[in-house]
């Protein structure tokens, strides 16, 4: 994962434009929504790694609404709330509903990029862990099949050895005939 797909949601066109330009300059894939309703529609059509959303927006769907919808659609989408009215209560409510973080306006871009890097690194770790788990499952399945094949082969060889031993113990034939029969039995598939 080299780049995050980010949805920027803010009713302020200056903030949207600034976020869009700065994120694109840092090689993020960016989509924008001017309010919560547009964001919800975009979330229903496409997966985003991160949603950066203003907390307070007109139009009936605020940042908490966008957060809830993003998490309902895909729990893997990380949401960072942006607010000019930061309070401990807002932060606690957002975190309880699944927000990964929140930022205060005016946005400190160094802080934003640091948080996005942490999100990207965490997503890469989760993906690598998932890939490793999948590889381990394949290895375990292959090992189980190999062990089963070996157990069948050992059982067959054991049967051949038992039959050869019984032939060698059979005193009704001469020694040379017993050896020849036993060898023939061992060589047969």
Short descriptors:
189 residues; alpha/beta; Rossmann fold; 2 domains; 6 helices; 5 strands; 62% helix; rod-shaped; phosphoprotein; transcription regulation; Sig_transdc_resp-reg_receiver; transcription; CheY-like_superfamily
Number of strands: 5
Question: What is the CATH H-level superfamily of the largest domain?
Answer: Response regulator
CATH C-level label of the largest domain: Alpha Beta
Q: End-to-end span in angstroms?
A: 52 Å
CATH architecture of the largest domain: 3-Layer(aba) Sandwich
Q: How many individual domains?
A: 2
In sequence order, what are the helices and strands, one letter per element? Answer: EHEHEHEHEHH
Helix content: 55-70%
Q: Strand content of the residues, in percent?
A: 5-15%
Report strand order across the widest sheet. 2-1-3-4-5
Low-confidence stretches: none
Radius of gyration: 33 Å
Query: Which structural category do the helix and sheet elements fall into?
Result: alpha/beta
Question: Which topology of the largest domain does CATH recognise?
Answer: Rossmann fold
Largest sheet: 5 strands, parallel
Overall mean pLDDT stands at 90
Shape: rod-shaped
GO molecular function, one term: transcription cis-regulatory region binding
Domain Response regulatory: 5-120
Protein name: Response regulatory domain-containing protein
Modified residues (4-aspartylphosphate): 54
How would you sum up this structure, described in words?
- With 189 residues, this protein is α/β, with parallel strands linked by helices.
- The model has no long low-confidence stretch (mean pLDDT 90).
- Helix 2 (36-45) packs parallel to helix 3.
- The chain has a five-stranded parallel sheet, sandwiched between helices.
- The longest helix has 61 residues, at 109-169.
- Strand 1, helix 1 (13-25) and strand 2 form a beta-alpha-beta unit.
- The protein folds into two domains: 5-107, Response regulator (Rossmann fold); 135-187.
- The chain is built from six helices and five strands.
- It comes from Desulfosarcina alkanivorans.
- One of its GO terms (cellular component) is protein-DNA complex.
- Residues 5-120 form the Response regulatory domain.
- One of its GO terms (molecular function) is phosphorelay response regulator activity.
- The modification 4-aspartylphosphate is found at residue 54.
């Amino acid at each position: 994962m080299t780049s995050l797909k980010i949805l920027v949601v803010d009713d302020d066109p200056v903030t949207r434009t600034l976020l869009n330009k700065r994120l694109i300059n840092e090689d993020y894939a960016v989509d924008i929504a001017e309010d919560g309703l547009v964001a919800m529609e975009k979330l229903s059509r496409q997966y985003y790694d991160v949603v950066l959303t203003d907390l307070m927006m007109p139009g009936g769907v605020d940042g908490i609404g966008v957060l809830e919808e993003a998490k309902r659609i895909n729990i893997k989408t990380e949401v960072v709330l942006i607010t000019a009215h930061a309070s401990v209560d807002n932060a606690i409510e957002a975190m309880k509903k699944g927000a990964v973080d929140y930022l205060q306006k005016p946005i400190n871009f160094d802080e934003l990029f640091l948080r996005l890097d942490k999100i990207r690194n965490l997503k890469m770790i989760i993906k690598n862990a998932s890939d490793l788990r999948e590889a381990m499952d394949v290895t375990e399945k292959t090992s189980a099949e190999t062990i089963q094949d070996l157990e069948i082969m050992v059982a067959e060889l054991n049967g051949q050895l038992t039959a050869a031993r019984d032939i060698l113990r059979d005193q009704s034939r001469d020694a040379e005939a017993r050896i020849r029969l036993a060898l023939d039995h061992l060589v047969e598939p």
